[in-house]
Design a protein that fits this description.
The structure holds two protein chains of two kinds. Chain A is of the alpha/beta class. Chain A is built from 21 helices and 15 strands. Chain A folds into three domains: 73 residues, no CATH class; 58 residues, 2-Layer Sandwich (Alpha-Beta Plaits); 275 residues, Fe-only Hydrogenase (Larger Subunit), Chain L, domain 3 (3-Layer(aba) Sandwich), CATH 3.40.950.10. The mean pLDDT of chain A is 95. Chain B is an alpha+beta fold. Chain B has a single domain, classed as Glutaredoxin, CATH 3.40.30.10. Chain B has a four-stranded mixed beta sheet, covered by helices on one side. The mean pLDDT of chain B is 94. The chains are: A alpha/beta, B alpha+beta. The interface between A and B is medium-sized, with 22 and 19 residues.
């Protein structure tokens, strides 16, 4: 994958990055007309040929890349979801469900047969098991009891990744993956898992580049970047201060920590919790969307706070109505959040860290030559929002700092499966907790689909960054804002 | 009169919180809440000389040590 590619977890991310980078190059230097004429050129840069390295032939590779360019330019405008399937890129993986493999020994016990609730298991003349797919309901009981683990569930990686069950096969003729927008929460889990890169998030890099160009070096208006605290675990090849300098070099006027918005959120969230007695967090847009779509009866318990991103953006917007505000983070669902009525007037666009990397390299920014610039607005507590448990700790601190007497019984859930369990209990009135911190991604925001890397050490990086904050308490961090 | 303190990262590290808090105090002590509007702004493009403070549109460099003098000379005197 080369030195450059090592910035990413997978070659799929690297491939998407290359397309974004080439699109950004043209957008920075040229105009839309030039971009429209450059599809073939970009495809040839990314898939130079003559031999195919990813698909059956170089022409298919380039056809898929043309679709990726379209995603880099904003994707299908008629589809409200920011996550889309690139149908010709989908390998249409077999999705046959439970199958008996060659490891079946043809034993005598036949536990699989006994446990099957649908009598779907039969045996051939060699005593080997077979599953009648017309009867099988994919319960998986047989696989659990087979002493040889000879029964395997063949599920598409995208479907396995999607814990809200929004992905299925389109139909018998079109076997490509299909996303049910009524269920999808735009977390991007499927995108990160698809081994063929057939699911992608729409990119708004063209909007952002246009904003930066039209600002005429921040004279016509100023463009602010709000960065998520998970940035501490990213771009580890450079110092964080250099990354801030690089963001400014792209043309942003100032870089502000979303973590300061997190400080503000935890302060008011503590008050709201004490007032209402039970609350679910509102920071993660995918978690909020999940509640609205799958547990609508619990929607009244969602904190009324805007997310940290929107909270700090509102502070900036209120003082400077004509500015532009771009959020940079690990999250694909933030691209949905900025379309909400409440957030639309506040935040202009969203970039992921993947996209930011592409923008850096489209401008050939040399990090080693960059000075370190300051990034210090928030407290430790605002910064640790980037990882699971951070919001829980911050609300506890905010209760303490405000001397609010409240019997705080929080639960921090990361990953939709944990969230579902807690919400299920809450909906039945048997959850022993009174505050649910919900993060759709495993590990919290550091596990976001838009991260360059997802590593175990990322949590430590976030905690370290938290400890480096000048302000030690939430009250101190937000006192400048009053 | 509008007094705006830079609360961008650079100025924050140089003490904008102390400057903001002291200004809030001074405004209260002098009973100027109706006449002086205190506000914050992320970056005034004068990072090297922070803490940047503007009085209406005039730019000043203030530090936690000089904030009292600044208030006397550029806020109180000009009201």
């Amino acid at each position: 994958m080369g030195k450059e590619g090592r910035k990413f977890d997978t070659k799929v991310q690297y491939l998407k990055y290359k397309v974004l980078r080439e699109v950004a190059r043209i957008a920075f230097d040229g105009d839309e007309f030039q971009l429209a004429n450059s599809f073939n050129d970009i495809a040839k840069v990314v898939a130079p040929g003559p031999k195919a390295t990813m698909r059956c032939c170089v022409y298919k590779e380039r056809a898929v890349i043309a679709e990726r360019i379209k995603m880099a330019c904003g994707g299908d405008k008629t589809n409200p979801n920011v996550i889309e399937v690139i149908e010709i890129a989908c390998d249409e993986c077999p999705a046959s469900g439970y199958q008996v493999s060659q490891d079946c020994r043809g034993c005598i016990a036949h536990r699989c047969e006994d446990v099957c609730p649908k009598d779907a298991i039969t045996f051939d003349e060699n005593q080997k098991a077979h599953i009648d797919k017309t009867k099988c309901v994919n319960c998986g009981a047989c696989a659990k009891v087979c002493p040889y683990s000879a029964i395997t569930n063949y599920v598409r990686p995208c479907e396995r990744a999607c814990k809200v069950k929004a992905i299925s096969m389109k139909n018998d003729e079109m076997r490509a993956a299909h996303i049910d927008n009524d269920k999808c929460i735009s977390c991007g889990a499927c995108e990160y898992m698809c081994p063929f890169g057939a699911i992608a998030d729409k990119s708004y890099i063209l909007d952002v580049i246009s904003m930066l160009k039209k600002s005429q070096n921040n004279t016509a208006y100023k463009t602010y970047a709000i960065v998520a605290p998970s940035i501490a675990s990213q771009f580890t090849y450079a110092k964080l201060g250099q990354v801030i300098a690089a963001i400014k070099k792209l043309g942003f006027y100032s870089v502000i920590e979303a973590a300061l918005g997190a400080d503000m959120v935890s302060y008011t969230e503590a008050q709201e919790l004490a007032e209402k007695g039970f609350l679910t967090s509102s920071c993660c847009p995918a978690f909020v969307d999940y509640i609205r779509k799958s547990f609508p009866k619990l929607a009244d318990n969602i904190s009324h706070n805007l997310s940290p991103m929107a909270t700090i953006a509102k502070y900036i917007r209120d003082r400077e109505p004509d500015c532009k505000i771009v959020f940079i983070g690990p999250c694909t669902a933030k691209k949905m959040e900025i379309q909400l009525d409440r957030v639309k007037p506040i935040v202009d666009s969203v970039l992921t860290f993947e996209e930011l990397q592409a923008l850096f390299d489209s401008r050939d920014i040399d990090f080693s030559a960059l000075p370190e610039e300051a990034l210090d607005n928030a407290s430790y507590f605002g910064r640790i929002f980037a990882r699971s448990g951070g919001l829980r700790d911050a609300v506890e601190q905010a209760l303490k700092e405000q001397n609010i007497d409240f019997d705080y019984k929080p639960i921090a859930c990361d990953g939709i499966e944990e969230c579902r369990l807690a919400l299920l209990k809450a909906s039945k009135g048997v959850l022993p907790n009174n505050f649910i911190e919900g993060m759709a991604c495993v590990g919290g925001c550091i596990g976001g689909a838009g991260c360059l890397t997802h590593e175990a050490r990322d949590k430590n990086e976030v905690d370290k960054y938290g400890r480096e904050a000048m302000e030690k308490t939430i009250t101190d961090a937000i006192s400048v804002l009053k | 009169m509008k007094v705006t303190v830079c609360i961008g990262s650079s100025c924050h590290l140089k003490g904008s919180r102390a400057v903001v808090e002291r200004l809030q105090q001074l405004v209260a002590e002098n009973d100027l809440k109706d006449r002086v509007e205190l506000s914050g702004k992320f970056c005034m493009g004068n990072c090297r000389n922070g803490v940047s403070v503007t009085v209406d549109d005039e730019l000043f460099s203030v530090s936690p040590e000089t904030v009292d003098d600044f208030f006397k000379q550029n806020v109180l005197a000009k009201l």
